[in-house]
Amino acid sequence: MNTTILGLDKNKTEELASELNILLANFQVHYQNLRGLHWNIKGNNFFELHVKFEELYTDAQEKVDLIAERVLTLQGQPIHTFEDYIKTASVTVAKNVTNDVEAVKVIVSSLSALITIERALLNLSDEANDEGTNSMMSDFISQQEKTIWMMNAWLG
After folding, report:
1. Which of 83, 98, 113, 125 could form a disulfide bond with 42, CB atoms 3.0-4.6 angstroms apart?
2. In percent, how much of the chain has pLDDT > 90?
3. For position 62, what pLDDT does the model report?
4. CATH superfamily placement of domain 10-155
5. Span 6-11, mean pLDDT?
């Protein structure tokens, strides 16, 4: 078996790095959506949601960095252009959303899409014995599931 410096199967780590780049692209779109929601939210829930959206985009920004660094750890190259993000991502771009309910629905939808990608990565990393990626995906999923629950509770 051809292994990496980490002792993992080289072919499997290449596949993982590729899939992590898909997650990275989707997270970048999600992050930018959150920035736009933070900037453009209006209405009676402005103060509450403005702060919450900042909390969420700060968390997303940290996750973007973790994902890119994991790609590098697996000896891959993280994608890093908006062109690549838009071409690769499946998370919908949210443009000019100002309504509170619509904004929260955008977040729930985006997080659901991210979790789907992360679960696939969780399975791949398990098959590759890649505990680093596996642990990161597990942490992301549990945090995002809680956020979805909270956002859905807010929606009523």
Report:
1. 98
2. 99
3. 98
4. Ferritin, core subunit, four-helix bundle (1.20.1260.10)
5. 96
